[in-house]
Specification:
Layout (H helix, E strand, L loop, with lengths): L1 H26 L1 H19 L4 H20 L1
Amino acid sequence: MNKLIEHLLKRELNYIIDENKEKLILSDEVYKKDTKDENELENKYLALDLSKQQRMIINDYIGKSFIICSIR
Protein backbone atom coordinates (compact mmCIF):
# COMPACT_ATOMS: atom_id res chain seq x y z
CA MET A 1 0.00 0.00 0.00
CA ASN A 2 2.85 2.38 0.85
CA LYS A 3 4.43 1.78 -2.56
CA LEU A 4 1.16 2.65 -4.25
CA ILE A 5 0.88 5.88 -2.25
CA GLU A 6 4.51 6.75 -3.03
CA HIS A 7 3.92 6.08 -6.71
CA LEU A 8 0.80 8.26 -6.81
CA LEU A 9 2.50 11.09 -4.93
CA LYS A 10 5.52 10.95 -7.20
CA ARG A 11 3.33 10.95 -10.32
CA GLU A 12 1.33 13.93 -9.04
CA LEU A 13 4.50 15.81 -8.12
CA ASN A 14 5.93 15.20 -11.60
CA TYR A 15 2.68 16.47 -13.12
CA ILE A 16 2.85 19.66 -11.03
CA ILE A 17 6.49 20.23 -11.98
CA ASP A 18 5.76 19.72 -15.68
CA GLU A 19 2.75 22.03 -15.52
CA ASN A 20 4.75 24.80 -13.83
CA LYS A 21 7.65 24.35 -16.25
CA GLU A 22 5.25 24.69 -19.18
CA LYS A 23 3.78 27.90 -17.73
CA LEU A 24 7.28 29.32 -17.21
CA ILE A 25 8.33 28.48 -20.77
CA LEU A 26 5.21 30.03 -22.25
CA SER A 27 5.76 33.25 -20.29
CA ASP A 28 9.43 33.57 -21.32
CA GLU A 29 9.64 36.28 -23.99
CA VAL A 30 13.10 35.25 -25.23
CA TYR A 31 11.92 31.65 -25.65
CA LYS A 32 8.83 32.81 -27.53
CA LYS A 33 10.90 34.99 -29.88
CA ASP A 34 13.42 32.21 -30.51
CA THR A 35 10.61 29.77 -31.27
CA LYS A 36 9.02 32.24 -33.68
CA ASP A 37 12.38 32.84 -35.39
CA GLU A 38 12.99 29.11 -35.62
CA ASN A 39 9.61 28.55 -37.25
CA GLU A 40 10.22 31.33 -39.77
CA LEU A 41 13.63 29.93 -40.70
CA GLU A 42 12.22 26.44 -41.06
CA ASN A 43 9.49 27.72 -43.38
CA LYS A 44 12.08 29.56 -45.49
CA TYR A 45 14.20 26.41 -45.66
CA LEU A 46 11.23 24.28 -46.69
CA ALA A 47 10.33 26.83 -49.39
CA LEU A 48 13.77 26.56 -51.04
CA ASP A 49 13.83 24.84 -54.42
CA LEU A 50 16.10 21.93 -53.47
CA SER A 51 16.31 18.42 -54.77
CA LYS A 52 15.75 15.52 -52.40
CA GLN A 53 19.48 14.78 -52.39
CA GLN A 54 20.40 18.42 -51.63
CA ARG A 55 17.92 18.50 -48.76
CA MET A 56 19.31 15.22 -47.37
CA ILE A 57 22.87 16.60 -47.43
CA ILE A 58 21.81 19.77 -45.63
CA ASN A 59 19.77 17.82 -43.06
CA ASP A 60 22.73 15.50 -42.39
CA TYR A 61 25.01 18.49 -41.93
CA ILE A 62 22.58 20.16 -39.55
CA GLY A 63 22.17 16.93 -37.58
CA LYS A 64 25.92 16.42 -37.25
CA SER A 65 26.43 20.06 -36.23
CA PHE A 66 23.74 19.68 -33.59
CA ILE A 67 25.41 16.56 -32.17
CA ILE A 68 28.81 18.25 -32.05
CA CYS A 69 27.37 21.31 -30.28
CA SER A 70 25.54 19.07 -27.80
CA ILE A 71 28.75 17.26 -26.89
CA ARG A 72 30.70 20.44 -26.18
